[in-house]
Amino acid sequence: MSIPASQPLPPSADSALAPAAGTVTDRLVEANKQYAAAFTDPGMDARPVLKVAVVACMDARLDLHDALGLSLGDCHTIRNAGGVVTDDIIRSLTISQRALGTRSVVLIHHTGCGLLNLTEEFRHELAAEVGQRPNWAVEAFKDLDEDVRQSIERVRTSPFLLHTDDVRGFVFDVTTGLLREVDPK
Ligand SMILES: [Zn+2]
């Protein structure tokens, strides 16, 4: 279920989880109280146990931990619109590898991605509407596999990363839950 961020939630019978007249953020804060009540400090440090960073789209249908069998503390998850390797993803990967010890990179795009329907025209229209040109590219794409290859290449050729020998890219199918690996060549 998706919940518009700007609208109050309808009253819920499950009053333990949702206040009668709260925003979606109120609902999250309530859920956190329950999470914290059952939480025990696992005593980990910040270095991911599996030494892996997963770069993925922010899509709400992609539950990385469940889909990849990951547990708390296993990996870094770095997400943005499209799972595109932008300068800021490289920033995070650089910190992930150089300061926090990860070695492997997994890139995940997915079927039905919102970026498949956009073009750079989005950016031009936005600039015309608000009177300010964004200093970022939309990074829209038409071909999922080709964009995964582009992302693999950006990671592999980054001068900032220590480890670029284990970089693999996948497309997650939101209807089957299956990953399909993309041949980098
Ligand atoms: Zn997406």
UniProtKB/TrEMBL annotation:
Keyword hit for Repeat: no
Gene3D superfamilies xref list: Carbonic anhydrase
Catalysed reactions, as listed in the record: hydrogencarbonate + H(+) = CO2 + H2O
Superkingdom of origin organism: Bacteria
Cofactor note: Binds 1 zinc ion per subunit.
Sequence similarity: Belongs to the beta-class carbonic anhydrase family.
Physiological role: Catalyzes the reversible hydration of carbon dioxide to form bicarbonate.
Protein's UniProt name: carbonic anhydrase
Organism: Streptomyces rimosus subsp. rimosus (strain ATCC 10970 / DSM 40260 / JCM 4667 / NRRL 2234)
